[in-house]
Amino acid sequence: MTQPVYDRIALIGLGLIASSMAHAIRRGNLAGEITGYARSEATRETARRINLCDRICDTAADAVEDADLVVLCVPVGAMGPVMEEIAPKLKPGATVSDVGSVKRHVIEAVQPHIPQGVHFVPAHPLAGTEHSGPEAGFAELYDNRWCLLVPVEGTDSDAVERLRTLWEGMGANVDEMDADHHDLVLAVTSHAPHLIAYTMVGVADDLRRVTDSEVIKYSAAGFRDFTRIAASDPTMWRDVFLTNKDATLEILGRFTEELFALQRAIRTGDGEHLHDYFTRTRAIRRGIIEAGQDTAAPNFGRGTKS
Ligand SMILES: NC(=O)c1ccc[n+]([C@@H]2O[C@H](COP(=O)([O-])OP(=O)(O)OC[C@H]3O[C@@H](n4cnc5c(N)ncnc54)[C@H](O)[C@@H]3O)[C@@H](O)[C@H]2O)c1
Ligand SMILES: O=C(O)C(=O)C[C@]1(C(=O)O)C=C[C@@H](O)C=C1
User: Fold this and answer.
1) Mean pLDDT across the chain, nearest whole number?
2) Which of 10, 220, 241, 242 is 20 to 30 A from 179, alpha carbon to alpha carbon?
3) Ligand 2 pocket test: which of 20, 72, 126, 144 has the largest number of ligand atoms within 8 Å of its C-beta?
4) Which UniProt keywords apply (predicted)?
5) Which ligand 1 atom sits nearest the alpha carbon of residue 233?
6) Looking at the domain that runs over 181-290, which CATH code has it been given?
7) Is the ipTM of this complex over 0.90?
């Protein structure tokens, strides 16, 4: 049996990401003990019922006491206040990490509350589903997916390496990235696509009133994929857009320009433009598959809806 990476890990916020971590940590025997805390009594009760952690605490302070690693698994907008609340209870030498989808904002909100002698290593697992809550998690979520570590300058390298070992133990491939670069890359690969999916499903919903239920009844695969993405947690995504404003607006600006160009090509019958464009985008998809990076979650439909 391998040695645990940390004696005690505290998970704060018990949704999809934390519950998947709890399952993966247990699968790999990566912690001596897992404690958990969720804001709502109902979530804590569910977590106890399904035996998600070794101990579910009624306060965040109790959960983090004596923890060697504390992982903030709450929506990005709640990271700062939660960190402020737990700061006085942290053990000297402990590491605080998070799983937020936006990194610059989390660093700015959390770092000022990190006590002297406590390490802070922000992280972001690039894996998820449209489901939320403590019952949505599963041990395989991080298998062969990326987890990006975003340490600020001067962070203790042992603390970073230990967190890397944990994520690798949970099945992830780990890389390091600067926070601003992370936020721009994720605006392209995750944040803008989610906004586009939300918009497309919203448009279809407006249309549904015109065409009765045909949009749902005859929805093709492409639209169904959009509806899966657009079923993602509203609080999480509100916070993502409010906290990664500049990068998302930059990418949406470029998106709008391209959309206008395609719109003009359709209006003017410029088939060559359309064909060239679609040929270029098809090559991107093929490149991803050839590079062996088509790690689309094999887990759609798992867990409970939020
Ligand atoms: N879902 C994904 O696809 C995904 C992927 C990677 C990273 N993330 C990030 O992980 C974090 C958690 O996401 P999730 O999908 O597990 O969400 P979730 O909705 O399943 O769980 C969120 C948890 O945070 C708690 N919470 C909400 N607001 C809070 C507040 N103000 N104070 C304290 N607790 C609060 C909720 O009760 C719940 O226990 C978010 O920061 C998100 O950006 C999500
Ligand atoms: O597969 C999904 O449901 C996701 O949207 C997961 C996804 C993504 O965009 O890839 C969503 C947000 C994250 O911060 C990381 C992963």
Assistant:
1) 92
2) 10
3) 126
4) Amino-acid biosynthesis, Aromatic amino acid biosynthesis, NAD, Oxidoreductase, Tyrosine biosynthesis
5) 19
6) 1.10.3660.10
7) yes
257 falls in which pLDDT band (50, 70, 90)? Answer: very high
Alpha helices in 59-178 (DSSP H): 60-64, 79-86, 104-110, 157-169
In our burial notation (b when 16+ CB lie closer than 10 A, e otherwise), range 1-26 reads eeebbbebbbbbbbbbbbbbbbbbbb
Ligand number nearest to the C-alpha of 100: 1
CB count in 10 Å sphere of residue 196? 16
C-alpha–C-alpha distance, residues 236 and 238, integer Å: 6
Task: Assign 293 a pLDDT band (cuts: 50, 70, 90).
Answer: low
Instruction: Inform me whether the pLDDT recorded for 297 exceeds 80.
Output: no
pTM of the model: 0.93
Domain 6-177 listed as CATH 3.40.50.720 = yes
Domain boundaries, the chain: 6-177, 181-290
| Position 153, amino acid | E
Element (H, E) at 42: helix 41-49
Residues with CB under 6 A from ligand 2: 101, 126-130, 190, 297
